[in-house]
User: Fold this.
Amino acid sequence: MSALPARPATALSPDTLAQLTRLTEGLDRDALQWASGYLAGLAAHTIRQAASVPSAAAAAAIPATIVYGSQTGNARRQAEALARELEQAGLPRRVLRADAYPLRELPAERLLYVVVSTQGDGDPPDDARAFVEHLTGRRAPRLPQLRYAVLGLGDSSYPKFCAVGTLIDERLAALGAERLFARGEADVDVDTAAASWRRTALTQAQAVLEPTPALATVTPLRGPAAPADATAWSRKRPFRAPLLSNRRIVGRDSAGDVRHVELSLQGSNLDYRPGDALGVWPTQPPGLVEAVLAALGADREQTVTIAGETLPLAQWLAARRELTRLTRPFVAAHAQRARSAVLDAALAADAADALRALLDGHQLIDLLQRYPAAWDAADLVAALRPLAPRLYSIASSRAVVGDEVHLTVAVVGYEAFGQARAGTASRFLADRGEDDAVPVFVEPNERFRLPEDPARDIVMIGAGTGVAPFRAFVQERSESGAAGRNWLFFGHRHFRLDFLYQTEWQQAHREGHLHRVDLAFSRDRPEKVYVQHALRRRGRELYDWIENGAHLYVCGDASRMARDVDAALREIAVAHGGHDAESAAEWVAALAADRRYGRDVY
Amino acid sequence: MPPAAPPSPVETIKAASRRLRGTLAESLADELTGALRADDTQLIKFHGSYQQDDRDLREERRAQKLEPAYSFMIRTRTPGGVVTPAQWLALDAIATRYANHTLRLTTRQAFQFHGVIKHQLKATIQAINQSLIDSIAACGDVNRNVMVSPNPVESRAHAEVYAWACRLSEHLKPQTRAYYELWLDERKVAGSGEEDEPLYGPVYLPRKFKTALAIPPYNDVDVFANDLGLIAIIEEGVLHGFNVAVGGGLGATHGDARTYPRLAEVIGFVTPDRLLAVAEAVVTAQRDLGDRSDRKLSRLKYTIDRIGLAAFKAEVERRLGEPLQPARACAFEHAGDRFGWVEGHDGRWHLGLRIESGRVADRGARRHLSGLRAIARIHDGDFRLTGNQNLIVANVSAAARDAIERLVAEHGLDDHRRAPVRRDALACVALPTCSLAMAEAERYLPELLDRIEALLAVHGLSDAPIGLRISGCPNGCSRPYLGEIALIGKAPGRYNLMLGADACGRRLNRLHQENVTEAQILAELDRLFARYAAERRPGERFGDCLLRSGLIAAAVPSAGAP
Assistant:
């Protein structure tokens, strides 16, 4: 396959053209098609970046933004009064409560007025907490383009009068924004100070927002990112992604522990699309490695060579070998050494259930402690299964999170034989703190893609952390303005504790990006309900959606949830589509063949 | 006439609500949230419920991408706070099944359930109604639960006044069928949403309206803290009628000098047969004259101060169609409760029990919920809530006393034997559920009392009855402005220290120190207790002594005197 067609694009310089030729040499048809999509994505990304850094001239079209944080309504009233005054002066403006303000738009703001009260002991009002947290956090963007002013409200009988207004005022300056005029501080007689602040705000807005005639061509301040080798990072060669945030997203009394993990892909050129998975290479917890070494009575520094690679034993155990999942061959090898009747019995030909129970209920350490045996270090390493990366469905869309990737991680933890046991990767992720690096790679999943036609409806069915890719779907579709409707079915244990991303779904619903939501919480009522029950309850409408072209997606537990959902779909076809059992199965199979029934199950 | 300002947002919500229905049905059906739509949170108050959330968890849950832990408080309409043992058991079962395993006895003789979640709200309200109690108008801009002195000794007088309170409560009840349709599945009939509200009209009152009936010499309902206070005039066992007091109300807003606590003033006397008519005249006068643009200024007390007491009285008499009779002489001795066993005139016995902050719960050795359940199972009289968050096991036959006394001992129900300052203290709910609270109250009261009791002991004042009240905000649910000592929350750990009320609910306290910490409060009380111990006259109360000796600023005019 030759490189480029004969007629090179005139926009490319000879150097760039040579670079592109070099990059595409040796790629087959599929790879080239993939690359064309990738490059188109890059281009779109570049345009977005360019659009978000407009020239000064283009600023005229950007309205003044008034953000308020208000507990009792005083700050809101002042913000709304200013908005009216700007409107009467014919100036473009928008007024937003702080918790409705899209924080990622901050770097694009030109003129920002913040009106915020201070509560109690110097706290922000509830609706402004996230706003203040974002601004004062270490991920706050630089804001050299921004001009702003702050009106603080407070009660001077408190020691920390207007503390929040002061904090925001100083922080915006520290982030490089230009303070247009001095902060206003309004006491309980709000209008005394606020009225004059609003007058200044109006005058300044008139100066800043005065329309400029004859717009010049908008020139991006930054050129496109340097082309990079997108294939540089891989399963074999993972990118060490810095951890940005790791927070629990189930309520205090939840029986489970689910984390929302945010990683930075900045500088990696790793790309992903909604539906893709992120591979994570975990490291075993040091405590577990030490326990295994202790149970073996082995020297941690002792070197072991396998397939030409020489590492200390502790290193093999920590980073190269599976310690939490047992296999039959290993149990067999261990049984020989341990001379254990129990293990022998479990390995007998007719004892499949006993073996299953043994494999499910034990980790390596349990075996070593309960059925002691002498192992040579090299034999042990050779007998253990190599550590494999874990795949997590990505919970974010680049259109919204930029260079980040988000995961929804159920932390596997239980007790066995009086000791805490954990899942390797989930524990590894849960234990990472800010700035720890997580070795990752992207695992594309072409079988779980949003419809190419944005006007198609989608139905998303997920239980527990199976909701992760749907967060990415809804982010992507709201950002792209897809015309199709989005319907989410979600199930978990308790509404109050386990409604993963509840406030984000609520916001998407409010803003018209999530059109229908049906929920099934299994432990809230005497009768247990799961997503398949919710599907049946909405069978009529669901069938209509599908018949009208909707794409269906199922994510979560394969052995139960996905199987039950599949059965429910067939029942719905019988109940509402006039199918019999056989043709219902064909109907479902046809959906899958049509790539309208995507399953991301595990 | 009220100022010509635009009506407040709540007025608009009420007007559009189709007699308090709003979109409550849709709000209840919305599975995506445990909350109601914003407008409906106003309307549900009229049905006896407030939407709240666990403020201890608010920040944590925001970080967890979870909405606040919403739940609902439900308050009963129980005039005079009287319930039968069967009803007590039903309410206990509701608290255990649907709420947070506690019953809270309020300062207005109602029961409150806390922590009911949205999808169980309807089942809970149905269960309450099955016990022949409802929650209609327990909150909202209407006449709320009518209070009655639970005076157990004057048995006959109590029975008669209580009967009038029940009639009054029914008479002032909204006529909308919204409650029955929404919660009790009553079928909609023609005119649903347009029911006649002869008393209230389509937008109800400008603000809440509180009514209490006191039976002297006890002012245990704090009658002068009510919009409408009715003081029974009983001579030789015969109820002659009621002195009528108007314009009481304790709520205020920090930093807003236009707002203030105010005691009701007596404007005359009516015979019992004119009781409903005079109440209706006061309610409708407030309905028509009250401020509907600024809810901070819409209580009856501000209406009266705006137009003048004489003009208001004239308006009431015009509506009544006759002049009020001159007020009769009467006297109050104190505003506290009577604890332990007392015998009524009819030979039945009454046991006054202390329930700290009105919270009936099982906590450690104090198994009050279980104990009262056990008592309710064998009791053949009734239960009466007091206006001071306490409970009377009333109408006990002499034969049943011992069995009840044993249950009291077994379940740690003997807090009434503790120091007077602890026994008489009041606290509102405050954190974590009350959305208005700025500081702790109920949860903090026990440790505050530990420290205050220790101080009193130092000064040899352990037996001194001193009325202490704590409130998480200035709205006054625990009637803090009538405490000899009161702490009114300003911010976490900070309070306004109020001092100098009298002990019978006729003199407000006043601000002594603003926005102070516990350490500052205890230091100041230490100083004042020392002076009180040294300078008090025989029988002189703390609040009176502070005032007489000039230890605190001079009195604001005392109210309530005829």
